[in-house]
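Field log, afternoon session.

UNIT: design team B
ACTIVITY: writing a sequence onto a fixed backbone
BACKBONE:
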């Protein structure tokens, strides 16, 4: 440590501070270069995040020990490029990001004191919208939801009150679609949460701009307006097409059959009322029977008609006195009422009745051989007829309805001649990002090499030169010290005079000091007295073997 300390002391404070600053700068530069080269490439994970979502995502990344970067005041989060997809899946499993909707917790703030009624009403609407959005987003096929409510207040001096309305924007998972029942359930959910809100006044659209529910106040236009006529026909044709292709692909192979379907549908709504009577189904409803009996007797004579003569006991004695005639009438009437069975039929034909179906099926042929030597061979007519029979059964073919189904065998065009844009082939399997990464590493390597050659190398050379000069000065000082010790020994061993003093010995070097004073190495700053260097040179010339032994001894000690 003594030579190193002597070296630092010989350089001086200014040089030591400058060299320490340069060394610290170089160490920092190489640390940055190493970290930049070895750091993974960061890619965007999420952008446009709310503060709550950012804090939850960062907490999840910390718990999973995933490196990340935050930019845009917390609205953007970046992770390593090879971990973006997996991290997004993990965050989606945790329900993040949640969208940052505000619910009833808006009333938990402590600054509610002194707020106006207007602000409170706005906060109430925001809370209702946030809670409804969270509830709708909890459904299986819904990835996100925005709810907008219009809650009009009752105005003064008005008889009629405007009814509330709602608008909902849905973001569906995987670009899917909702069924009419699911849309109706969302309408009823929102209508039940808002007072005086009717389901027909809830409008729903998806993130692609498709109208799912009109919300124009028409009772028939709510959930029934989910699918338009064209959408219904497209779904029906796609269903038939998929059924034909899957069935025929089992025989001819995957990718060797194509089908196109055109369906003519009747969208008229027809209501038919019919009343039918069944004469064989008679039932007695009521029976009425009437019986009538009448009798009368007529007589002729000269005897006056008196009351006494009309009595029964006196009439018998008068029978011989004139002509008598008797009349009797009997009548019987019966009325029977029957109930005849009757049936009333109301037939309603809704839209979407199939009127005519046209199906065109294209089938590839048979290829014989391998590689480029494959030869095309058309399929036999018997096989095509069998395929047509299968297709007719799959689509519900009805000749009386005017359906058409054609199966045609033609050679499919090779995929390489289709107008399909090809991706650019990467050179050596590397993409654009890889080339940018390699260029960045090369630039940093060149900069590091220049720093080593232009900055570090001169500093090291300067330090080595100073160390060599210091070593030479130390060697000269040690040699001078040895010479001084020898001179002192010579003085002690010199002959003495009568007074006990050593006799003066002259060697012809008058005008020069015989013995130099001791040299303090702490005060040596790169220079040594010329007399000491001269004496060291003379000693080395006179005693080369001893000088070599001294140098070896110094090397072993260090």
């Amino acid at each position: 440590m003594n030579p190193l300390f002597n070296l630092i002391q010989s350089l001086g404070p200014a040089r030591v501070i400058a060299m320490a600053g340069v060394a610290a700068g170089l160490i920092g530069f190489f640390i940055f270069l190493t970290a930049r080269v070895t750091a993974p490439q960061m890619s965007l994970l999420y952008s446009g995040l709310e503060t709550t979502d950012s804090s939850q995502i960062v907490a999840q990344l910390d718990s999973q020990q995933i490196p990340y970067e935050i930019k845009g005041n917390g609205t953007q989060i970046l992770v390593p490029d090879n971990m973006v997809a997996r991290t997004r899946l993990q965050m989606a499993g945790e329900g993040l990001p949640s969208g940052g909707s505000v619910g009833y917790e808006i009333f938990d703030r402590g600054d509610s004191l002194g707020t106006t009624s207007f602000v409170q009403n706005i906060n109430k609407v925001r809370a209702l919208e946030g809670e409804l959005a969270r509830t709708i987003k909890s459904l299986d096929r819904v990835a996100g939801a925005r709810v907008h409510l219009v809650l009009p207040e009752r105005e003064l001096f008005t008889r009629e009150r405007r009814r509330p309305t709602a608008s909902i924007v849905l973001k569906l998972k995987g670009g899917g679609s909702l069924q009419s029942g699911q849309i109706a359930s969302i309408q009823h959910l929102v209508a039940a949460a808002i007072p005086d809100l009717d389901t027909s006044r809830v409008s729903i659209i998806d993130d692609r701009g498709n109208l799912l529910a009109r919300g124009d106040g028409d009772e028939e236009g709510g959930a029934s307006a989910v699918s338009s006529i064209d959408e219904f026909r497209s779904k029906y044709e796609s269903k038939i097409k998929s059924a034909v292709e899957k069935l025929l692909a089992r025989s001819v192979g995957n990718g060797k059959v194509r089908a196109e379907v055109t369906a003519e549908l009747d969208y008229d709504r027809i209501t038919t009322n019919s009343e039918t009577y069944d004469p064989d189904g008679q039932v007695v409803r009521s029976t009425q029977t009437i019986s009538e009996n009448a009798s009368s007797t007529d007589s002729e004579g000269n005897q006056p008609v008196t009351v006494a003569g009309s009595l029964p006991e006196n009439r018998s004695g008068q029978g011989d006195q004139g002509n008598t005639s008797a009349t009797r009438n009997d009548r019987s009437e019966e009325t029977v009422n029957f109930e005849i069975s009757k049936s009333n039929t109301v037939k309603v034909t809704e839209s979407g009745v199939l009127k005519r179906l046209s199906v065109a099926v294209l089938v590839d042929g048979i290829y014989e051989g391998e590689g480029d030597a494959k030869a095309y061979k058309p399929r036999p007519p018997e096989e095509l007829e069998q395929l047509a029979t299968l297709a007719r059964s799959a689509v519900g073919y009805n000749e009386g309805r005017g359906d058409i189904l054609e199966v045609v065998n033609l050679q499919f065009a090779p995929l390489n001649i289709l107008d399909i844009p090809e991706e650019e082939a990467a050179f050596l399997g590397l993409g654009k990002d890889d080339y940018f990464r390699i260029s960045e590493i090369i630039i940093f390597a060149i900069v590091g090499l220049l720093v080593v050659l232009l900055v570090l190398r001169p500093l090291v050379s300067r330090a080595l030169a100073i160390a060599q000069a210091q070593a030479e000065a130390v060697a000269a000082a040690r040699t001078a010290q040895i010479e001084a010790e020898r001179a002192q020994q010579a003085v002690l061993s010199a002959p003495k005079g009568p007074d006990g003093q050593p006799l003066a010995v002259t060697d012809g070097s008058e005008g020069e000091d015989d013995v130099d004073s001791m040299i303090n190495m702490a005060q040596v700053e790169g220079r040594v007295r010329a007399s000491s260097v001269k004496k060291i040179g003379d000693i080395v010339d006179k005693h080369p073997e001893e000088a070599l032994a001294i140098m070896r001894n110094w090397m072993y000690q260090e």
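LOG NOTE: The chain is about 40% helix and 25% strand.
NEXT ACTIVITY: expression trials, pending approval
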